[in-house]
Amino acid sequence: METCFFCETRPADPPSAVEVQLRGEKLGTRKTGFKQYTTTYEGRRVPVPRCSACAEIHRKQRRSAGTSTVLGTVGVLVILGGFYMGGWAKSR
Prior knowledge:
This protein is about 40% helix and about 30% strand. It is α+β, with helices and mostly antiparallel strands and about 90 residues long. It has one domain. A two-stranded antiparallel ribbon has the order 1-2. β1 and β2 form a beta hairpin.
């Protein structure tokens, strides 16, 4: 049985696995003269074993990061709106 990649202690839960996109660089054609290279990237998805406890922690972290982003954006807009409405616009 596989072990969780993240905590390395609990057994992996197959439905909780996370897929990670891996990209590998492949050198394409080389043009002579000006040393121009064409580089392409080859990618594939690889499942990473994870236990249900780590999956739940990752879900909560993702949720709180999204909430923080929204609240931070609203805060900045309120502050900018306050500067605009409170004095900067009236002093012109």
